[in-house]
Amino acid sequence: MYSIEKGRRHAAYGIVLAEPNSEIRRLFSRLVWQVYRVRARDKPRLRIVRAFGAKMMRDLLLYGPFGKLRWVAPLRYLDGISARAWVRSYFDGHGDVHLSTVISKCRVRAKSVNLSGLESLKALLWTFFGIVQNLQAQKPANPNWSQPYELNIITMEDLLKYHRFVGFNHPAKLRRLRRVVELIDRRRA
Length: 189
Fold this sequence. Notes:
The structure is a single chain. This protein is of the alpha+beta class. It contains 6 helices and 9 strands; from the N terminus they run E-E-E-H-E-E-H-H-E-E-H-E-E-H-H. The strands form 3 sheets. It has a 4-stranded antiparallel sheet. A 3-stranded antiparallel sheet has the order 3-5-4, with helices on one face. A two-stranded antiparallel sheet has the order 1-2.
């Protein structure tokens, strides 16, 4: 986050989206404009989009803390539609689909170093969509790094629920999820 004070940018009034997919960066820019009338600046070489706006930040800060170790799902502000959008956006950025020819090895997963954030995401998935997942600690790639955690959606029923109720905006992740659903449908046939 960044702020603007006397023409200078500081760390409280801006959002940076780091995303290699140009389609997602364009979608983000369009949504920021539609909701806040703030023009986001795409930096394709850096694979980021930046948006600055005091009104935007004041609005977003109402929904909870920011930062990789402090965020939590804003459960008390969500209904079914906004919960779907929140989960979808989180998994678009921090999730992936592990695809395998063996269905029991297919999964939708999300990673974070924020355990309380993933626990709130787990509660959100269960409360709004009845999706069961597991949460595991992973081994850090470097002993000096923070402890990473991984939330996994594993069972066929829960993968189908995720596809039906949440899904992805990210085109590549959506294609992989559809492939998992095709594998499940073929197995059930």
